[in-house]
Design brief:
Layout lengths: L3 E6 L13 H18 L4 H8 L1 E12 L8 E11 L3 E10 L2 E14 L9 H14 L1
Antiparallel strand pairs: 1-3, 2-5, 3-4, 4-5
Length: 137
């Protein structure tokens, strides 16, 4: 898997008064896509917490809004890991409609213990992320 694709249809409640996707909703779409990406790799947020005592939290987001999406549009959220360290990793996520990017963001995610202190990424997770990055290179 080079990139994980997650489809999102735009509903009325996703739009603002101008009829375009409200900017914060892109973050929700990307959160769902990240969760599903982890699931396809064999990890679930609840399982990581139960089995390893870790939580994945967002530390930083850099986002750029490139084009509007509107009611009934179908976006594809494309996610991929682009870097990894001992306690954190960066994912690139893009919202694409008909081959054109609407939204692009890089999100820095940190593994923490339940008391929100940085925690080492489990070796099994790190190994899979490294394999994914090799395929994306």
């Amino acid at each position: 898997m080079l990139v994980h694709d997650f489809p999102v249809r735009i509903y009325y409640d996703d739009t603002d008064a101008g009829g375009v996707v409200y900017h914060a909703n892109y973050l929700k779409f990307c959160e769902r896509a990240r969760t599903e990406y982890l699931r396809t790799l064999g990890f679930e947020n609840s399982g990581l917490r139960a089995e390893n005592g870790i939580i994945i939290v967002v530390k930083k987001i850099e986002a750029e809004y490139l084009a509007p999406a509107r009611l009934d549009d179908v976006l594809t959220i494309r996610s991929r890991v682009i870097s990894i360290k001992n306690t954190s990793f960066v994912m690139e996520q893009k919202a694409v409609k008909e081959g054109k990017e609407n939204f692009v963001m890089n999100v820095l995610l940190v593994c923490t213990s339940e008391d929100l202190r940085p925690a080492k990424i489990p070796d099994a997770v790190k190994e899979i992320f490294l394999k994914e990055m090799e395929q994306n290179a």
